[in-house]
Amino acid sequence: MRRREVLxxxxxxxxxxxxGALAVGEWNPLESGDAVDSIELETIDAPGSDAGTASVPExxxxxxxELFATWCTVCERQMEPLGAVHETxxxxxxxxxxxxxxxxxxxxxxxxxDWWRDHDGDWPVALDTDLELTEALDASGVPYAFVLDExxxxxxxxxxxxxxxxxxxxxxxxGGE
Length: 177
Hints:
Layout: H1 2-23, E1 39-43, E2 52-56, E3 62-68, H2 73-86, E4 93-99, H3 109-118, E5 125-127, H4 132-136, E6 144-148, E7 154-159, H5 164-173
Parallel strand pairs: 3-4, 4-5
Antiparallel strand pairs: 1-2, 1-5, 3-6, 6-7
Helix pairs in contact: 2-5
């Protein structure tokens, strides 16, 4: 009887620990090196971003991508460290932010461009309205950031507020020096 209680307790702790890692974003199944297929996303006209399309992630380049939303206060505070990192990377690194907000329903392209301008965004901003990129990265929530190496394998992910140093180190480790 006692042994069964111990085993049930150990199993419960293991489940709790795994759930806790998921809840705080410390574990991502894609960090195992699985490659992500490139997805064509619409880019909008905003500071540092031209209207058109972008293939994200772009094979052959280290890619930094952050998923954000204009209603997210943590995303708003994350713009400063993102800007600091963006200033330090060269053209060998694809640097892009994408929102999955329902454009045309609760937000317009102009709203996103205004938010981008108000928060000093100066790199490509894209729309993931079909959630293709979000699903490919197995992301849940915003902000959620990823670094992918030249073969489109996830090498780092972070959920919530990340420091500029942490993001830059992840880009460097993926080969985006």
